[in-house]
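Lab manual, section 2.4: Encoding a predicted structure.

Procedure: take the sequence of the chain (266 residues), apply the prediction step described in section 2.3, and record the output as structure tokens. A sample record is shown.
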Amino acid sequence: MSAALLANFTKLVGQEAPPCQKSLDVLAELRLATLDFQFIFAEPTNAAEQKQSDSEKKIVMSMLESSVLLAAKLGNWREENNMFENSYSQLKTFYTDQKHIVDQDKKNEIFGLNLLRLLITNNLMKFHMELELLTDAERVTSPIAFVVALEQALAEGSYHKVLSAEKNVPVGSFKGFIPFLKDAVRADVANCSEKAYSSLSVKDAQEIMFFDSEKQLKTFVNDRPAWSIQDGRLMFQAREAAQVEIPSMRLISQSLSYANELERIV
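Recorded output:
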């Protein structure tokens, strides 16, 4: 029964479009079915039990892998305690402790997907921590190498490399994350632009923020109260220079006090 549910779940995740209600329903059934497994936590004592243990763990591992892919498709990866992160954290235990049953290609895809998620959310510390868990051989596989190259391009400010990467995604599951990556790049460029310029022509702003039309730019500007478009120019709110008051008399008094104290000690 569990194997049949897993096959159906995996098929639905690959085919169903959001909101993927059928996938979620089958996942709920599959989770209940795995509660009857005997060797997820118990250690087998003979060859027959070992075979059953491996079979049960393969089903749970595949269920978690498909859950990650489903979460990526649904966008359930940003909020706390989300399906993506919960499933991924459980998967890491299997990848570490049950290496003999791991599908290496699927592991590379799942790890790459998580690295892409961390890159989009700008969680670079965790990104590099996760990268350290991989072997040199795993890092050069196409899913991992693709995301590492994106991280390097972002660090260099080579945004065109990042945006053109959509044409070269190594696995289909990455495609759902690419629009969010574009948004992250655009936000970074926007923040830099308002610090560097007081205004830009609409044409230049559209180009450097990678919008396909002026309408898209205007929609983006509407979400930023400090920005406005006037006479064909994108205006950034003037930032007043922060004035730092130096309490000179107090500092002089303190300095003299320290000097007198030092002279008394000496």
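Check your result against the sample. The chain has three domains: 1-102, 103-196, 198-240.
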